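Every protein is a chain of amino acids, and every chain bends into a shape of its own. The fold becomes a row of whole numbers, each drawn from a learned catalogue of backbone shapes. The protein below has been through that process, and both of its lines are reproduced in full.
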Amino acid sequence: DQLTESGGDSVQSGGSLRLSCVASGFAFNLYAMGWFRRGPEKERELVAAISADGVMTYYAESVKGRFTISRDNGLNTLYLQMNNLKPEDSATYYCNSVSAPSDWGQGTRVTVSS
């Protein structure tokens, strides 16, 4: 199993980023997937999740209305569109299965300056 995140960058408050996660080594289309983040001196938290078929989604209250999770099962890819970014969104973002997590990837770093 391998998860490769990308798309992180440094942006100003109010900016947007789109994160991508390419999965390999497992049946991506059978698993609900999620985006997680770990900020400085914080534990990893679930930010958003999406069902295996992409129909159902979940968002943490802190990102609801600003972030959108999506997936392309044909490309084994998970996305996170992040709009109206805030400094408190600064973190390393990871993707993983929410039901049967595999080894964590390296993540992608997002830095939001005020």
Summary: The chain has no helices and ten strands. Residues 91 and 110 are 5 Å apart (CA to CA). The mean pLDDT is 96.
